[in-house]
């Protein structure tokens, strides 16, 4: 037998209250029976959400990968692709905007320094073609 729960939408004062514990601070507070509050205040609700539903705990978290399959990391407070950070550490300077990092074995998750090469992106691709992915580029 299904039980229909009727929730009030009126603005008048409620007489039937229930005691509930806040999910964040565990403080006991009283609310009308017709309400479904889980937190004693908006502050507790925001704090619980930021603690439980952000970064790794978010349902949208993709384990630090982009939609293209590259790893994303934080370096010096700046979000960047891991293969670019590895190459910058290897050559000892920041990469220019016209420099790409090429994965020699075509595995976007293999960011070992031996697998990476800096390539220049020009309007005329000549000279070198990757034997694995057939991408044309100039090696710097």
Could you explain how this protein is built, in words?
- The mean pLDDT is 78.
- The chain starts with 16 loop residues before the first strand and ends with a strand.
- 15% of the residues lie in helices and 24% in strands.
- The strands form three sheets. It has a four-stranded antiparallel beta sheet with strand order 5-6-8-7, covered by helices on one side.
- β7 (128-129) and β8 (136-139) form a beta hairpin.
- It is built from two helices and eight strands; from the N terminus they run ββαββαββββ.
- The protein is rod-shaped and about 80 Å long.
- It is α+β, with helices and mostly antiparallel strands and 140 residues long.
- It has helices at residues 42-52, 82-91; strands spanning 17-21, 28-32, 72-75, 78-81, 99-103, 116-120, 128-129, 136-139.
Number of strands: 8
For the largest beta-sheet, the strand count, sense and barrel status come to:
4 strands, antiparallel
The strand order across the widest sheet is: 5-6-8-7
- Rg from C-alpha positions? 27 Å
Q: Judging from the principal axes of the Cα atoms, what is the shape?
A: rod-shaped
Order of helices and strands: EEHEEHEEEE
Low-pLDDT sequence parts: none
Mean of all residue-level pLDDT scores: 78
Structural class: alpha+beta
Write the layout of secondary structure elements.
Elements (H helix, E strand, L loop, with lengths): L16 E5 L6 E5 L9 H11 L19 E4 L2 E4 H10 L7 E5 L12 E5 L7 E2 L6 E4 L1
Antiparallel strand pairs: 1-2, 3-4, 5-6, 6-8, 7-8
């Amino acid at each position: 037998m299904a039980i229909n729960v009727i929730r009030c939408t009126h603005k008048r004062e409620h007489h039937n209250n229930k005691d509930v514990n806040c999910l964040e601070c565990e403080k006991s507070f009283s609310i009308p029976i017709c309400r479904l509050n889980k937190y004693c205040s908006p502050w507790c609700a925001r704090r619980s959400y930021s603690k439980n539903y952000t970064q790794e705990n978010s349902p949208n978290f993709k384990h630090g990968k982009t939609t293209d399959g590259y790893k994303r990391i934080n370096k010096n407070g700046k979000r960047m692709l891991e293969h670019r950070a590895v190459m910058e550490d290897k050559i000892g300077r920041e990469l220019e905007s016209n420099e790409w990092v090429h994965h020699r074995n075509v595995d976007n998750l293999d960011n070992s320094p031996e697998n990476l090469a800096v390539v220049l992106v020009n309007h005329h691709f000549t000279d070198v073609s990757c034997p694995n992915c057939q991408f044309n580029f100039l090696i710097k």
